[in-house]
Amino acid sequence: MIVFQIGEKIVYPNHGIGTVENISTRAFGAQPERFYLLRLTYNSMTVMVPFSHVEEIGLRKVTRNGEVVRVLGFLAEGACNLRGDWKDRFKENSDKMRHGSLLEIAEVMKTLLILQQEKPLSFREKKMLDRARHMLITELSISRGLRELDVVDLIQKALGKASLSLPAPL
User: Fold this and answer.
1) Distance of CA 29 to the CA centre of its chain
2) Could you tell me which of 16, 44, 45 has the C-alpha nearest to residue 130?
3) Average pLDDT over residues 82-96
4) Are 78 and 45 within 8 A, CB to CB?
5) Residues 30-48: tens digit of each pLDDT
6) 3-class SS at 14?
7) What pLDDT sits at residue 42?
8) Distance CA 97, CA 155 (A)
9) Tens digits of per-residue pLDDT, 43-84?
């Protein structure tokens, strides 16, 4: 089981970066349960996550530098599998966003950027692209210790090699 410390920045899949603000114990019936109290960076919302659900939810440590290099390489040169059917594509992308690995989030973003060159995205896909963009920028910023503007430049350079462009936030 992964253990996090108070003050540590972690990734809450599909929601982005959060900070462990507290670890507490609450009783539900006769069973005491330990919880992480997280403050999400994106909207300052607090979330209580039971220790018993950490793996199920997919909480994880911020991606290390070696994986960041892989993600940037994928954005520059990696191939994407475009699904034709909107529903299948949306379900697959939603699953990747829920799983939460940085590489999968980059796959979602790149796939939607390629698709956007061919035809307009649906409203839901535009929202997903925006969320993937935000999650990628914030995690790379924390992982590399860079300002978000510098990370945007880093991602843009990688995407530029694939003739893609990072969209502005919604």
Assistant:
1) 35
2) 16
3) 86
4) no
5) 889 999 999 998 888 999 9
6) coil
7) 81
8) 18
9) 889 999 999 999 999 899 999 888 899 999 999 998 887 777
Helix (H, G, I), strand (E, B) or coil at 106: helix
Quickly count: other Cβ atoms within 10 Å of residue 61's Cβ: 12
Helices (H), the chain: 54-57, 65-77, 86-99, 102-118, 123-144, 148-161
Alpha-carbon distance 124 to 114, whole Å?
16
Which three-class secondary structure state does DSSP give residue 158? helix
The answer to whether residue 1 scores a pLDDT higher than 80 is: no
Give the β-pairing of 16-28 and 9-12. Answer: antiparallel
Let me know: does 63 contact 10? Beta carbons within 8 Å: no
Q: 């109290």: which residue's tokens?
A: 37
Tokens of 103: 């590489």
Which amino acid, residue 107? Answer: E
Residue 160 tokens read as 């530029």
CA distance 115 to 112: 5
10 close to 60: Cβ distance less than 8 angstroms: yes
Q: What is the mean pLDDT of the chain?
A: 91
User: From CA 90, how far away is CA 127, in angstroms rounded?
Assistant: 11
